[in-house]
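User: what does the whole thing look like in 3D?
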Amino acid sequence: MKPERLAVIGVGLIGVRHAELIRAHEMCALVGLCDVDPNRRAVAERFGVPFYTSVEELIERERPAGVVIATSNDTHAAVAEICARRSVDVLIEKPIASTLEQAQRIVETAQAGGIQVLVGHHRRHNPLIQKTRELIGDGALGRLIGVSILWALLKPDDYFDVGWRREQPGGGPVLINLIHELDSLRFLCGEIEEVYARTSSAVRGFAVEDSASISLHFLSGALGTLLASDAAPAPWSYEATTGENPAYFRTHENCYTFLGTAASLAFPRMELWRYADSSRQGWKEPMERLAVEVAGADPLTRQLTHFCRVIRREETPLVDAQDATKSLALALAVQESARTGLPVVPALVGGG
Ligand SMILES: NC(=O)c1ccc[n+]([C@@H]2O[C@H](COP(=O)([O-])OP(=O)(O)OC[C@H]3O[C@@H](n4cnc5c(N)ncnc54)[C@H](O)[C@@H]3O)[C@@H](O)[C@H]2O)c1
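Assistant: Here's the predicted 3D structure for the full assembly of 352 residues, as structure tokens:
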């Protein structure tokens, strides 16, 4: 089969990574790059592909089968609209957009243009996350009682040299980082019907939060807690524990704990704890720790393989625009709860 012709729009931090992955993948070919910043032309020269500052011109000249939209969140909807009008399938980086109105616009224009939308919540392509979902779904833990998440790391001082990372709206770990945890929680444990959150900016004193404590109620009746800080020298972030991104120091600790009526699971070391003898249960009885084997694989590469199959209409998007809009709604609900001091029911919960 001929490789799919793919282009990347937005050649910043993650856009360059997508371009590298496309170039290395046998199912696709990189046919062009686009960025409103003409200084990014040098990146295209490095890749040896044409560079455009206009999305329309890129599509007209290169006729890609699909594009990766890796521009800033506020521009996702406008760029996706251009692609939809020209029948080009899109992989949109997460979050789908900055607001629910923009996300809805993406849903509608994609439907009108008959294009496929895959949203880059790439952790769902991680075999560790997929195995965990399978264990919970198959009842290996019994009925899910709750989940506890720790996301703690220290962002370096120069990270905050970029102005928007210190300012609301847009900056802060809730929308930048915790949307990953919230999307994974929906994928693993089902929809969340209510959140209550407190945030703090006490460490750095910026307008954006540096720490958050979030209480979650799942539709299933399960409970969840999430304690997060980007100002804590700690080994318990998803990034550091899974080693998913080789740029992070890997700590091999656990960061999520799932509690069920039959067993508990520590993630990502995939340690399943249960009673050694199921007929003898209780706090004084011996427990055993089973290691669940999972073969590792790069989730961004797996996401790209999936995108190529979506373009070929062999698969439907694992995370479509409607699904990703629910994860955005959840992150916005966390922010609203922190702002108002009240519990919030996320928009679209269960429906939409
Ligand atoms: N999946 C992940 O783990 C992950 C990691 C980082 C970033 N992201 C997401 O990827 C997106 C980009 O983030 P980043 O950190 O690479 O940003 P960035 O600021 O480094 O790069 C964005 C680029 O898009 C360009 N751009 C902006 N508007 C444009 C437009 N209308 N047309 C063409 N180019 C345009 C900018 O000039 C810039 O070069 C964001 O949505 C972000 O949330 C996801």
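In plain terms: The pocket of nicotinamide-adenine-dinucleotide is lined by residues 9-15, 34-37, 40, 55, 70-73, 75, 79, 93-94, 120, 122 (CB under 6 Å). The chain has two domains: 4-115, 126-295+329-340.
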